[in-house]
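Page header: ASSEMBLY MODEL / two components / 573 residues total.
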Amino acid sequence: MIVAATGWDQVLDFSDYGELLQLVRNSIIAGAVLGIVAGLISVMVMTRDLPFAVHGISELSFAGAAAALLAGVNVIAGSIVGSLIAAVLIGALGTRARDRNSIIGVLMPFGLGLGVLFLALYKGRSANKFGLLTGQIVSIDAPQLSSLLVISAIVLVALALLWRPLWFASIDPEVAAARGVPVRLLSPAFMLILGLTVAMSIQIVGALLVLSIVCTPAAAAMRVTASPTLTVVLSVIFATFSVVGGILLALGGSLPISPYITTLSFLIYVACRILGAMRGPARRSARHA
Amino acid sequence: MTAAHGVISLEGTSMAFGARTLWTGLDFELQAGEFVAVLGVNGSGKTTLLQTILGLTSPTSGRVLVAGSPARRGSRALGYIPQQRRIAPPAPLRARDLVGVGVDGQRFGLGSLRARRARRATVEAALDGVGALHLADTPLDVMSGGEQQRVRVAQALVTDPQALLCDEPLLSLDLHHQQTTVALIDGRRRSHGTAVLFVTHEINPVLPYVDRVLYLAGGRFHIGAVDEVLTSENLTALYGTPVEVIRVGGRIIVAGLPEHSGPAHAEEGLDPGADPDSSTASDR
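Prediction written out in full:
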């Protein structure tokens, strides 16, 4: 703390850590719950090839949150409304992969532009503005925490109910349809669940960085295992570790938590890629043994 | 009720999309233990026929019965091998996972631990039945086309269906794997009396096993034994253009099929007859 010239104390500084921990209890609980939800949903995002849709939804969610900020109403509610509008549009207009990508490509800049407009008109604290795009500086209050918990519960129940048919429809759509899975109804249903998750993630990591917890964890897990169960378990562990670890690391400095989360998430992915590449050839030759 | 019907019966069914008629007045019974090949050029409605039986699309008129009751989605009396060049799952997937979704993938909720253990045994029995138990933990993306098709057959048979519907299961396979795949399906028919409805554009790989053929062309059809249906006169009449059927050394060669549909053994893309429903493929 005496030599502050380098600016490193902004990045990592663990003095008074115990007291800070008390202050951010809410954030850590929120982070842990978000990690579980995001880890689960990212498996489906990867399996259904939807990372781009996540990005599209998050920009509209950002616009919704910015509008709510400007109007002085609940930001999470605004964010959810934006998310759901995007999810419905993408789900309804983009059943085919190619249509979906073009619709997302069109919606995304529009949403971002709207958000920028609303923020430009907003006269309040500038930290609020920046937070929506790039994540909060550790600050989750009690009402925010309870709404995050409620949304998480809804998402978890929906996922538990739909997981098996959703998985079937994702990996093997023709046979799933023949087996009686309502393939066409599951698509929009999943988009709604995804919309809720994205709206929730934005409160912590910001609209631009949502993919780091809703795509990267499963992408990393899939590098090291071909077992669906293990993929889910690892993805949840990776996501939770990134979010909670990011929050804990960010405590000391005065920076937003998102760079810590995205860096942890990315490092896990790199490690899994290296591990997967080392084991890949072995796996291939093992089956001939 | 069931005694009066075959495993699959089509009663006076017609299928048309707008002005285009795929077939009219089709009466057809698939009996237990029977191997029927469905032939026809691209767009003649072969895939649509399977989708009608699977309950994924309704015939324009007539009735379709599966095991004595009207065709509906999700019938466990049917096993289905979809048309596919290679299985390219978006997520890593092992053989046991692909077969496993065939057991309970359509169920909502998470299922009990006991059900999961029972499923494991069912899946391994199905893989063993096609000689692929050693592949159970192998990821699909490192398998050869022949190994993948073996796993597909296991998935289709895992519910112990009365009939197996196969949509061009030989497409991506070399000659050797074509033969082993057909022999596998035929073996099941002999051991379990499973009826087989086998869509193909190439009769020769299945010639040794086929009881009857159903030939679809130009809105009409022919049903009967291979030698009754595949004659120059019949095909000439079906297509309205001179078609020559030649038998050479146990093989059948069809020459002179209409130009727009290509030769009978041409590489086949997606059956245009499937278009109204093919969006399920991209509807993930």
